[in-house]
Amino acid sequence: MTLPNTTEFDAIVVGSGISGGWAAKELSEKGLSVLVLERGAPLQHGKDYIGEHVPPWQTPFRGKPLRELYQQDYRVQSTSYAFNELTRHFWLNDRENPYDLNEDNPFLWMRGGRVGGKSIMWDDKFIAGVTWISKQIKKMATELIGRFVMLILRPGIAT
């Protein structure tokens, strides 16, 4: 989509995952003009959820990991509970999208490669985990929003 050079926004949100999507929703509901920037590939509901409701015995190799491929191309991503052959197309390839690591203090982030970020890969395990730590959820949500959403506000805009 091409915008005219004169378009101004009150806020720019980078990423349409759970935090970025929510930030954009809240800001736009307050009347701000919001631009959301997203690098993830489009996702068509129904069509792109190729593994939804597919039992393991109907998957290639009965859902067992493709060890050589995972080690070569998905070394970090394949450590997630949600990574498997039915969800691999949602994840970024580690070899094609390498990490820039500080070897003394490595930070290996799971990276989704679709619109919506990793929120499309959560399931009941995430919900159970959140329920288990419900006393800390407010603190966690505050930290997550501050850490994972890049939000640029025009000077003079109060949220």
Query: Percent of residues in helical segments?
Result: 25-40%
Mean pLDDT: 76
Terminal residue distance = 27 Å
Strand content: 5-15%
Succession of helices and strands: EHEHHHE
Taking pLDDT < 50 over at least 5 consecutive residues as the criterion, the unreliable ranges are 124-149
Structural class: alpha+beta
Number of structural domains: 2
Question: What Rg do the Cα atoms give?
Answer: 18 Å
How many helices?
4
Number of strands: 3
**Biggest sheet: strands, sense, closure?**
3 strands, mixed
Shape: globular
User: Which sequence of strands runs across the widest sheet?
Assistant: 2-1-3
Give an account of the 3D structure.
The chain has 159 residues and is α+β, with helices and mostly antiparallel strands. The chain is built from four helices and three strands. The protein has two domains: 1-40 and 118-159, no CATH class; 43-114, no CATH class. The chain has helices at 18-29, 67-73, 124-132, 137-148; strands spanning 11-14, 34-37, 150-153. It has a three-stranded mixed β-sheet with strand order 2-1-3.
